[in-house]
Amino acid sequence: MRRIILLGIAMLLLALQITDLVAQNAKKKTPPPFNWVNPPRMLPPGVQHGVFKSPSMKQDVGYCIYLPPSYEKDTDRRYPVVYYLHGGRPGSEAKSIGLANYFQRYMTNSEAPDMIYVFVNGGPVSHYNLADRENAMGENVFVYELIPFIDKTYRTIADRKGRGLEGFSQGGRGTTRIMFKHPNLFCSAAPGGSGYETEKRISEENGRESENLVFAPGDNTWDLARNYAESKEPPLRIMLHVGTEGFNYNNNLEYMKFLESLRIPFERIIVAGAPHSAQKIYDKRGLELVQFHAESFRRSGALPAQ
Known about the structure:
Layout: H1 2-27, E1 47-54, E2 59-66, E3 81-85, H2 100-108, E4 116-120, H3 138-153, E5 163-168, H4 170-181, E6 188-192, H5 196-204, E7 208-210, E8 213-214, H6 221-229, E9 237-243, H7 249-261, E10 267-271, H8 278-300
Parallel strand pairs: 3-4, 3-5, 5-6, 6-9, 9-10
Antiparallel strand pairs: 1-2, 2-4, 7-8
Helix pairs in contact: 4-6
């Protein structure tokens, strides 16, 4: 009888474990299929969705753009623009558009000058080039195709003095790589919550992030920073930001020490109590990030001095 009872208890525990495992697997979200065009169901105030034809891929690519309150009225005015790189994989131009609610509030209330923000589709591997996959050159599509299209289509200040770059998580990694690779395109950059530990492993393993994901050797935030440090030209204003409760907090601190060792100037925003979330960081310190870009544009001459 005792054996039967023990066997029954064991079977019950096993059943509970299986049920728990099934529930955990059910909670795991299957990544959505990648698309180069992703029209949002709802758009925040001031945001529009658009597409352009990619010359390299011969297909449409989506983007979202925030136009500031004065854009439609002041038709002779040109504006500085900040390109925002979303987190996560795969890419979608709709991923981070909720941040436009902050931009709208800051600019409507005259807490920040009017600027354009563009939300980028980072491609299948989010802001990386992956030459061995078809139509997976996300960085090149952004740098060589989207930026020129935006400059031709909207009233931007079409020069590095009027361009900024920002992103979070995967987008922070992308921002860091691109700002060091293309400092001739941007005067201001604000990478946030970046996975610098992964980028360091890519550096140390000759481009390998995983068994199925290998990038070009040297195309990572550590090697590109070393390259930039050799000349530090043209000079970048850099603002790293991270939350103390985010899982990339410690490796961001390590990367800050690395930049200091290279004597690359940067500023930092460390948000106490904030998790790995651009929105939570914007809740507490978002205005400082927008004002950071504004000050970069003032120093470059793209915005008038206060």
